Amino acid sequence: MKKWGYGIAGAAMALIVGTLSTGAAAPAEPGSTNDPLVTKSYVEQVKSELLSKISSIPAAPSGGSNMPPADNVQPSSGKIATVKLESGQEIIGYSGTEFIVRSGKVTALTQEGKGYSLPDITTGTDLLKDEKVSLNHLILMPRDDGRGLNVVQGPAYIMVRGAYKIQ
User: Fold this and answer.
1) Could you tell me if 79 and 162 are in contact, meaning their C-beta atoms sit under 8 angstroms apart?
2) How far apart are the first and last CA of the chain?
3) Does the global pTM surpass 0.70?
4) Strand runs (DSSP E) across 17-123, as ranges?
5) Residue 21 and residue 165: Cα distance in Å, rounded?
6) H helices, E strands: number in the chain
7) How does pLDDT run across 65-81, given as a tens digit for each residue?
8) CA dist list (Å): 159 to 36, 97, 111, 141
9) What pLDDT digit, counting tens, does each position of 121-144 carry?
10) Cα–chain-centroid distance for residue 115?
11) Alpha-carbon span 128 to 138, nearest angstrom
């Protein structure tokens, strides 16, 4: 009888533990404190609070452009435009503008001094003032400070992506 007593006690204990653990693992009732519902009004309230916080953030500075605004600036559309320039003309790019010279003799148009070069992405070098720009090389304008390309012998066809102006 002793063996039966331990067996019954063990079975009862297993039944109790199993019942309690199943009840604890059961999903909470929707809408209870364990699984709260979110109402539309609450979502709208949080949304309006976030939008008011975002709108109160001051705007970032423009980047300190040294170039005066010009009426003949071609806006950036993200597409590549092919521009024909004659001898003596210059094309000035804005920050992020890309140039690829397809024909003609073209030189780099930059200021004198360290830090005023044009990055030639194709070769990984910098082009200094009046240095020849090789055909089919990707040239990137790093800032809005008047850098660009000068056509020495034209006509020159230049592919452009980004904002630019012709002088």
Assistant:
1) no
2) 109
3) no
4) 81-85, 90-93, 98-101, 105-109, 118-120
5) 74
6) 2, 10
7) 444 455 556 666 678 88
8) 59, 11, 23, 13
9) 999 999 999 999 999 999 999 888
10) 24
11) 15
